[in-house]
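Something for you to look into today, if you have time. What I am after is a single protein written out in full by you. I want to see for myself how the chain folds. Could you add the entry underneath, on a fresh line?
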Amino acid sequence: MNTKEKIFNVALDLFSQKGYDSVSLREIAEEVGIKKSSIYSHYRSKEEILMDIFDYFKQQFEYNPIINNEEIKLSEDNPLLKDPELFYHKGSEAIKQMIFQETNFKIWKLILIQMHHNETIKLFFQNEILVKPLLFWNGFFTMLKEQGIIREDSNPKLLAKQYYSFPIYLLLEICAKYDDIPQEVLEHFFEEAEAHANFLLDSVKVK
């Protein structure tokens, strides 16, 4: 690990534990084991470190092959849509692999803290965490309705909100309770989220 990577990781640890505003460059430098002035060889400011962390996270959403694979794409010819529980499970496993990366979970916590103080992060949260997933799940339920898998009287938009809001609640609950998230807690999170998804699907599926 080179010095810039050490600065990145130490800053992320401190930001996610204390909040961005409560951490100084001097504190970051001390934790890395360098002088404060040495940070400027890699980052021009504390905010530049924050935005580097944020850019890393954005790239996970845009380019990570784990969550951008063909099995969980919404398309009429995707055979997994005939088995929506399996489709959800595949997507859940993909997200699990990404979140289980310790760096990503720390960044998630940091975004929850920092979105109230940084317009770029706030817009990312609104678009990538709220708007786009709801559009995706709305499309998911619309396809299920068109294919006769769920009832004709189902409301895809409402189902999308119900489907997606529960795991968001669970994630917020975990972030509020733990600084370092035990792996068994994350495992339980995915089990609960999947049980809720299956329950909701079962309530609207054509019998």
The domain at 1-49 is CATH 1.10.10.60 (Arc Repressor Mutant, subunit A). The two ends are 56 Å apart (CA to CA). The mean pLDDT is 88.
